[in-house]
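Tokens as discussed.
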């Protein structure tokens, strides 16, 4: 199957179809999923259809059959093909702006490694800041500790309210945080009793496109514009969930760096992501954290060889495109239908439980935050995990739970479920979740009970 993808057309425009994929064919593509589980957590691990897994297996066998031939004749040319497809998907200006990496965490390490070197060599000053959203992915915050804080940089978190009422809530808090990052600080010669006033600089802003928990589509274009207005040196958009989940356009967004996984919402196997680095002097200093003989040849080339490993997940992008083009409207059609259905199911759940969604529907993508009944008694992260485990082990429902914080009163929602919708989901999955929670309420279950 892989051979048929090596010399074919990479153009992504939709061909006229007489028919599209049927429900039965979708079910067959995902027959490897556990049929007993209502899988409402596509956002965590994604999904890969059987046809793409078969293509991956062919690439693996091709490598094992004759590794030298594969390395010299197949690998780089077909990685370039995958990169060319992604370049078209995200409207990058040039294919050299697209690198393939394992996942968004690897891309984050590449960008933050550059920032760390800038602090160490004096390009960035001690006390200069990196801005990050409070709801940034936990591993990104850890990477900031590892690369930025240890190098002497300050980290400023942008507090975001939740639940949200509009994009203005995000923009307002972001502007406030930028002002804090630029605030004056005291410095000088203590021995002579003099003090010089210096101004901190925000060297890098790390902005989510779709936050993970709670899940919200961030007005990323507006935040990037604020960064440009305020003189922030570099902008890195962590969009782990974005491609296949929301609109992605590099020219429109205008960031310096942008990363998104293809194994979450674009049907590739784990793990593969792209890193976009706009062609500039800033991107020339990016290097893969695994140093190989390609070091110094540009991040795209460096990323194409990080030692002898399995590159098959990066090679099946054409097969993933073939799969999504079996659906009406391709990936954009899938994205729109996923959004419409997950919002409908979210509204069904909050109506059943007398709660509310975590943000307006237009600030959701293919995931929606659904308020859980306060009587479940969720008062900590451990309580949230306890409920999630109970739903998995006793009801066959897989859904992540977000603990918002202490209740304002006994009627306040303290936790939200993040429900996902992907093409394999059925309406019955969401009703199974509703009925499981209703059964827990009927049984008098509370997460705080031992």
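Sequence:
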């Amino acid at each position: 199957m892989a051979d048929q993808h090596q010399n074919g057309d990479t153009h992504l425009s939709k061909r006229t179809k007489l028919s599209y994929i049927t429900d039965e064919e979708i079910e067959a593509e995902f027959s490897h999923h556990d049929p007993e589980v209502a899988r409402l957590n596509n956002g965590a691990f994604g999904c890969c259809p059987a046809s793409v897994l078969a293509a991956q297996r062919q690439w693996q066998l091709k490598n094992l059959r004759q590794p030298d031939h594969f390395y010299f004749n197949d690998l780089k040319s077909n990685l370039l093909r995958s990169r060319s497809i992604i370049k078209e998907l995200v409207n990058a200006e040039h294919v050299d702006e697209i690198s393939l990496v394992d996942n968004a965490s690897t891309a984050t390490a590449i960008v933050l490694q550059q920032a760390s070197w800038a602090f160490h060599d004096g390009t960035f000053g001690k006390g200069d800041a990196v801005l990050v959203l409070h709801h940034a992915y936990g591993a990104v915050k850890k990477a900031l500790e590892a690369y930025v804080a240890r190098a002497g940089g300050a980290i400023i978190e942008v507090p975001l309210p939740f639940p949200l009422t509009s994009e203005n809530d995000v923009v307002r808090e972001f502007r406030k945080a930028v002002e804090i990052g630029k605030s004056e600080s005291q410095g000088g010669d203590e021995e002579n009793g003099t003090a010089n006033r210096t101004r901190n600089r925000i060297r890098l802003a790390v902005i989510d496109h779709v936050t993970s928990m709670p899940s919200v589509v961030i007005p990323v274009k507006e935040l990037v514009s604020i960064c440009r207005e305020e003189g922030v040196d570099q902008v890195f958009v962590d969009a782990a969930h974005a491609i296949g989940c929301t609109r992605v356009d590099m020219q429109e967004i205008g960031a310096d760096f942008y990363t998104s996984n293809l194994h979450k919402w674009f049907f590739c196997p784990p793990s593969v992501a792209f890193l976009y680095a706009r062609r500039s002097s800033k991107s020339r200093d990016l290097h893969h954290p695994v140093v190989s003989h390609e070091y110094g040849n540009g991040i795209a080339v460096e990323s194409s060889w990080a030692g002898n490993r399995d590159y098959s997940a990066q090679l099946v992008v054409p097969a993933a495109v073939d799969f999504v083009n079996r659906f009406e409207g391709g990936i954009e059609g899938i994205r729109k239908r996923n959004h419409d259905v997950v919002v409908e199911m979210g509204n069904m759940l909050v109506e059943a439980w007398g709660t509310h969604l975590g943000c307006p529907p237009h600030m959701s993508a293919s995931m929606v935050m659904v308020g859980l009944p306060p009587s479940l008694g969720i008062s900590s992260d451990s309580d949230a995990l306890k409920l999630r485990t109970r739903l998995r082990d006793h009801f066959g429902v897989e859904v992540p739970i977000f603990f918002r914080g202490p209740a304002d009163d006994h009627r306040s929602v303290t936790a939200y479920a993040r429900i996902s919708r992907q093409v394999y989901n059925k309406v019955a999955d969401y009703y199974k979740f509703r009925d499981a929670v209703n059964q827990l309420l009927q049984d008098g279950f509370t997460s705080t009970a031992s």
